[in-house]
Input
Amino acid sequence: MLTPIALSIKVALIAVGIDAMLGTLLARVLARRDFPGKDLIESCIMLPMVLPPTVLGYGLLMLLGKRGPLGRLLQETLDLQIVFTWWAAIVAAAVVSFPLMYQSAKAAFCSVDTSLEQAARTLGSGEGRVFMRVTLPLAYPGLLAGVVLAFARALGEFGATLMIAGNIPGKTQTIPLAIFFAVETGDNQLARNLVLVITLLAFAAMFWLNNWSKKKLQTMQKGGDGYA
Amino acid sequence: MLKASIVKRLPNFAIQAEFKVAQGILVLFGPSGSGKTTLLNCLAGLQKPTSGQIWLGDKLFYSSAKNINIPARCRRIGYVFQDYALFPHMTVKDNALYGMPSRTGRCRKKLGCRMSVKEVLDMLRITHLQDRYPAQLSGGEKQRVALARALMTEPDLLLLDEPLSAVDSGTRQALQQELIRIQHTWSIPFVLVTHSHKEMDALADEVAFIKNGKVAASSPWMLSAEHTTRQRA
Output
């Protein structure tokens, strides 16, 4: 029972790490810029949230499979196979949870008053320092919310993972897959325990996030003690 | 000496302005929506004019002909924003220290700076507030912190966008006197935007009237009785 739990947490953590970096970067670039085709890009970014996971799994398989363009490239240049390894589980988890991270990060960056960034520029700061000292500290509650949501979503990923990572116990069998196959084989005891574990994990994440954002909101309304 | 001659086209109208100020306070006076803030933003380097040029002393900040546009961070222009734009996640002291030329913080005077952090905070009477956050300050206090933050960068020019619009009338009068005093101490030109006649009377050494995007007149301000009294004093 421990192997799927440890694997799930490891996969979700790495996937969220990738999402956090890419999502923050992309959201920062897109939040403050308008250009032709922006709507197109944003729609593509949000697509994994509304498509059935099996469709994503199929798409990833076509892309990363042995005959897929990216899969073949990785195989030939780095001798690296992605499908049916735990890297595939990470890719699937990262792709399905990416829209949640991106959406939260974009809202967070949009909420930062641009005049504060302008003020920092007049005070002699280059763009890097403006981002690190002003934008990021002010946007971090939204970024953190995105990380928690994406983590919860990555933890629960099933369909796409099954399609590109398969169900290999100890290698790619995460909690949702283990539950499905435990029920299939009639091991209700294992299924129940795993259901309990994943429900508790997801609940803890959501409970903490709700509580924390409520406190953050209250302190900000009280007048800046949130920063004190 | 600030010399600016710029055109800035906006979606609805165009701003045309030509003015210069060597010392003292130049007041840009005009109704809301006449493009005063846009002018300040062009001077500060936060917005790019459509054409023209901006000189401060012998430094050329913007020239459409020579294709020069020095970024805001390199202009050494202090800017007090209308809503002060204080960093809400930093204390008063950290706000004031944000734009300091040297990061060490202690030997400002050795670096040829006019005043230490403590002296600037003392001058503006906000030393007792140094550990507070902006949300815990009144309008007048915020204004002083914004002023301290801008002065700490050792600017060659100070821009003030309706700096007294968010404070009550008692505080406003005190702050007006303080601004005049600081301008004398610091002896750099100030460009101040306002739509209030009273404020113009109290503060202006020179006035540029802006109407429908055009600077209608720019002249030494002699008409106000209050101003002449100030000159004599």
